[in-house]
């Protein structure tokens, strides 16, 4: 009984090998071409009210392929008593998350840069210009949002020592070099580090509140000057 079983098994193995050889000789191949086309996209507007920071309004430029989507609405600095010497005045409320947001769906990977400047100097209706004023925004960091893949080789580079002076000269905030910045990116501004710097409090006049404006500018292409 055992001998018959072994013999049948041997014949079956030979038969399978022979059949396999026949199939291998009859293999045929064909090819199908693949094509895909990509066009420049349109930015996706964030929700009207962003739960992480309700002070960031949309800029209204929602039909572009490269757009400045969000900017801080207000930096309200803490009330400060007049004294002598320099002052570094923090925000009155450091709980919100302040950020700017840029979305790039051009598909060119050509980079972009974001700058800011004090476009309207800090002035008071009755007291005039606030002398020696500047705004310090250290520690800015980048965060990819809405599905953008965060990768060190494509992440835009933030300026880590931002100081906006009353001379209205633009300062670089974020530089997305060639090959960087595709997708949606937030430049996070630490609220607990943002300060209004005053050169000499003794020159400040008490009266109306001082007010000014920061203008944010998004430009296609990487920054051309070092910082």
Provide structural commentary.
With 227 residues, the chain is mainly β. The protein has a domain of 155 residues. It has one helix and 13 strands. The strands form three sheets. Strands 4, 5, 8, 10 and 13 form a five-stranded antiparallel beta sheet that branches. Strand 4 and strand 5 form a beta hairpin. The chain starts with a helix and ends in a 7-residue tail after the last strand. Keywords: Signal. It comes from Carnobacterium divergens (Lactobacillus divergens). Pfam families: WxL.
Counted by DSSP, the helix tally is 1
Describe the main β-sheet briefly.
5 strands, antiparallel
| SS-derived structural category | mainly beta
Tally of strands: 13
Query: Which residues sit in consecutive blocks of at least 5 with pLDDT less than 50?
Result: 1-18
What is the residue-mean pLDDT, rounded to a whole number? 79
Which range does the strand content fall in?
25-35%
Alpha-carbon distance between the termini? 91 Å
The helix content, as a percent range, equals 10-25%
Keywords: Signal
Pfam families: WxL
Protein name: WxL domain-containing protein
InterPro entries: WxL_dom
Topology:
Layout: H1 2-25, E1 66-70, E2 87-90, E3 98-104, E4 112-124, E5 128-129, E6 133-138, E7 141-145, E8 157-158, E9 161-165, E10 171-176, E11 183-189, E12 195-198, E13 211-220
Quickly describe the structure.
Keywords: Signal. The chain is mostly beta strands.
What descriptive keywords fit this protein?
single chain, 227 residues, mainly beta, five-stranded antiparallel beta sheet, 1 helix, WxL domain-containing protein, WxL_dom, signal
């Amino acid at each position: 009984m055992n001998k018959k079983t072994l013999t049948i098994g041997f014949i079956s193995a030979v038969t399978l090998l022979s059949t396999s050889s026949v199939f291998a000789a009859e293999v045929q191949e064909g090819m199908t071409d693949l094509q895909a086309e990509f066009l420049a996209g349109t930015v996706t507007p964030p929700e009207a009210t962003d739960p992480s920071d309700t002070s960031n309004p949309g800029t209204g430029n929602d039909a572009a392929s490269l757009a400045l989507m969000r900017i801080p609405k207000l930096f309200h600095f803490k009330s400060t008593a007049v004294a002598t010497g320099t002052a570094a005045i923090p925000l009155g409320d450091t709980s919100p998350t302040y950020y700017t947001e840029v979305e790039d769906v051009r598909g060119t990977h050509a980079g972009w840069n974001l700058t800011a400047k004090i476009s309207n100097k800090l002035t008071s209706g009755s007291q005039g210009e606030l002398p020696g004023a500047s705004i310090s925004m250290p520690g800015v960091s980048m965060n990819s949002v809405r599905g953008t893949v965060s990768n060190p080789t494509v992440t835009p580079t933030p300026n880590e020592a931002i100081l906006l002076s009353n001379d209205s000269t633009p300062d670089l905030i974020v530089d997305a070099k060639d090959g960087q910045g595709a997708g949606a990116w937030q430049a996070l501004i630490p609220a607990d580090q943002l300060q209004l710097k005053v050169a000499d409090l003794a020159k400040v006049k008490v009266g109306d509140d001082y007010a000014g404006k920061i203008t944010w500018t998004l430009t296609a292409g990487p920054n051309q000057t070092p910082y």
